[in-house]
From TrEMBL:
SUPFAM superfamilies: HIT-like. The lineage of its organism: Bacteria, Katanobacteria. Keywords: Nucleotidyltransferase, Transferase. This is Galactose-1-phosphate uridylyltransferase. Residues 14-99 form the Galactose-1-phosphate uridyl transferase C-terminal domain. The keyword Transferase applies. It comes from candidate division WWE3 bacterium GW2011_GWC2_44_9. GO terms for molecular function: UDP-glucose:hexose-1-phosphate uridylyltransferase activity. Pfam families: GalP_UDP_tr_C (PF02744). One of its GO terms (biological process) is galactose metabolic process. The keyword Oxidoreductase does not apply.
C-alpha cells in the first residue's frame, strides 16, 4: 500500500471523482483563481494558493494547472516555470515571517484521478495537546484569505 497520507489522498481523490466526476485540485485551484482572495501567485502553468481546508496557519499548495497524477510527467516548459515559482513561494515565507523554518513536500502518485501538488508549511507555532495528542489541527493565526493576502504581497515579481 501507500504510506499514510498518500493512501488517504488516493482514497479522497477517487471518492471526489466518483461523486463529482471531477478532480478536487483542479476544482480547488480554479475556485481560488476565480475568487482571487486565496491566490498567492499564478503563472502560466501553476497556481500557488492557500487551500480552503488548512491544517496550519499559512499553509500553501502549489498546484499545476495541467492535471497530471505524477510529478515525473511534467514537461520542459513546466519545469522552467516551476524553477521560478517554487523559489518565489519560499521567498514569500522568508520575507513575510523573518525566514521561518518551513517544510515542503511533493505529493505524487501514478494513479488517476490523483493530481500531484506541492504542499508548504511554515513553522510559526508550537503544537499543543490537541495537535500532538488527538491529531486535531488548530489553525489559530490566519484564515486562508489572510494567507493569500500576506504571502501574495511578499511573492517576488518573476
Amino acid at each position: 500500500g501507500f504510506p499514510g497520507i498518500l493512501e488517504k489522498e488516493k482514497g479522497s481523490a477517487l471518492h471526489y471523482h466518483n461523486e463529482k466526476n471531477s478532480c478536487y485540485w483542479c476544482d480547488e485551484w480554479r475556485e481560488a483563481v476565480a475568487s482571487k482572495d486565496r491566490v498567492i501567485h499564478e503563472s502560466s502553468h501553476f497556481v500557488v494558493f492557500s487551500p480552503k481546508a488548512c491544517r496550519w496557519s499559512y499553509e500553501v499548495v502549489l498546484v499545476p494547472k495541467n492535471h497530471k497524477p505524477n510529478f515525473g510527467f511534467i514537461d520542459e516548459m513546466e519545469i522552467n516555470d516551476l524553477a521560478k515559482v517554487l523559489p518565489g513561494a519560499l521567498k514569500a515565507y522568508k520575507d513575510s515571517f523573518d525566514n521561518p523554518d518551513r517544510n515542503y513536500w511533493i505529493h505524487t502518485m501514478r494513479y488517476e484521478p490523483y493530481h500531484w501538488h506541492i504542499g508548504f508549511i511554515p513553522h510559526l507555532k508550537v503544537f499543543g495537546a490537541l495537535e500532538l495528542g488527538a491529531g486535531i489541527w488548530v489553525s489559530d493565526k490566519a484564515t486562508p484569505e489572510d494567507s493569500g493576502k500576506k504571502l501574495s504581497a511578499a511573492f517576488p515579481v518573476i
